[in-house]
Amino acid sequence: MKNLILKILLALKMAAKDKELQEIYNRIFGDAMKYSHKFPLQMVAATYIAIAMRLYKTTLSDEDYKHMIESVMESEIEPFVHDKETLH
User: Fold this and answer.
1) What pTM value is reported for the model?
2) CA count, 13 A, side-chain hemisphere, 88
């Protein structure tokens, strides 16, 4: 996921500070996991992507928005796998 974020930032010609990027990613991902205990993961994901699209649409030019969407569409993402404990 970090590679996707970096790819988007580079496509938008924005320099990312790794430490800050990792910090905000960890915080927001942690929040998403908290919501996933109450709501279906697809609902959580849809909400986050809707917020992200709105923020991008607000801050980017039409051309930069298009580049960001293309970067997302071209990226392969590894699924998140919950660490499941074995119950006996």
Assistant:
1) 0.69
2) 0
Measure Cα distances from 67 to 11, 58, 73 in Å.
7, 15, 10
The pair of structure tokens assigned to 8 is 């988007």
Q: pLDDT band at residue 86, thresholds of 50, 70 and 90?
A: very low
16 within 8 A of 6, measured Cβ to Cβ: yes
Task: Give the whole-angstrom CA distance, residue 53 versus residue 45.
Answer: 12
CA-only gyration radius of the chain, Å = 15
Angle at 8 between CA 32 and CA 14, to 5 degrees: 110
